[in-house]
Amino acid sequence: MDNKLHFFHYLHFLLLLSSSCFSLLAFSWIPYNENKNYRGSSDLVNLEYHMGPVLSSPIKLYVIWYDYLDPSHQATIRDFLNSFSSSSYAPHPSVADWWRTVRLYTDQTGQNISTISLSGEFFDFKYSQGKYLSRLSMQYVIKNAVMRSQPESLPLNYRTGVCQVLTSYDVQVPRFLGKQCPGFCAYPFAWPKNSGKPPPNTINGGNSLMGAPNGDPGVDGMISVIAHELAEVSSNPLVNAWYAGDNPISPTEIADLCPGVYGTGAGGGYVGQVYKDSWGNGFNLHGVKERKFLVQWVWNPLRRRCFGPNAMD
Ligand SMILES: *[C@@H]1O[C@H](CO)[C@@H](O)[C@H](O)[C@H]1NC(C)=O
């Protein structure tokens, strides 16, 4: 993630003032407006452990919907987050199977990253803090969520809680607070028309564009970004645990090592071997309620390569 150090400073700020969440992920989905180069394959990088903590207590995830109101988008994201628990039934390869790769990371006492469960949701309507969320206004969004939520709904424990603020596409979140999910987040379901470039070709010609398994390129792309960020916040919550490279200001984390990799053989613009549903939409994981998702792989520390449960080898 870009500018992790700022994110880190914010995290302290957040802990001091509200003690509400251990960590914060903020997403704003902005369709097709940001150029980010597609990186087809990962280079071998020396991923190292820097002795800091990982999220080893059961991770409670709290979602704050900040004017993110489309009910079908919410349902897709909610079902995805509910699929992380290994008790939520879904056929193999499942979202819970995908999380097992993340759980292979440990801290210096040998504690693995824990399970993750959606533990509360809060709805913040009518742009209560405006359409540009600064550090301070983000703080208020969280404070409101904590104070106005039903008992038990957001019983925030900053040691085990991860807050995820999802905003509508017209809300701006400063880059240092999180990721704007731009057009390229929707790849491989769509390719930004104004990118000035054609989609990457695969080795055997053609391109990898495919239908979105839940019917919306933006939300289906955002699913993979959410998974990416959850993997990284769990394995590197204070930016002193698992990352590659010498620079903690822009660490290469366990999901940054596998951009564009969704199946065996991925690389050079090819997403790898994934499944097709009966409408021809691509997916690689099953979730609850017969959902299907396409989620990028993460670095497996034992196999020392990008890996996911749909791997053929
Ligand atoms: C914990 O991590 C170790 C080392 O990667 C791995 O061998 C073990 O299977 C992991 N345990 C769980 C429950 O994932």
Automatic annotation (TrEMBL):
Pfam name, any one: Phi_1
Protein localization: Secreted, Extracellular space, Apoplast
Q: Name the InterPro entries on file.
A: EXORDIUM-like
Q: Is this entry keyworded Membrane?
A: yes
Q: What are the alphabetically sorted keywords of the record?
A: Apoplast, Membrane, Secreted, Signal, Transmembrane, Transmembrane helix
User: Per the annotation, which location comes first and is thus the protein's main one?
Assistant: secreted
Q: Which domain of life is it from?
A: Eukaryota
Q: Which residues cross the membrane?
A: 7-30
Q: Which family does it belong to?
A: Belongs to the EXORDIUM family.
Q: Which PANTHER family match?
A: PROTEIN EXORDIUM-LIKE 5, PROTEIN EXORDIUM-LIKE 7
Q: Mind telling me what this protein is named? A: Protein EXORDIUM-like 7
Traced from the root, the source organism's taxonomic lineage reads: Eukaryota, Viridiplantae, Streptophyta, Embryophyta, Tracheophyta
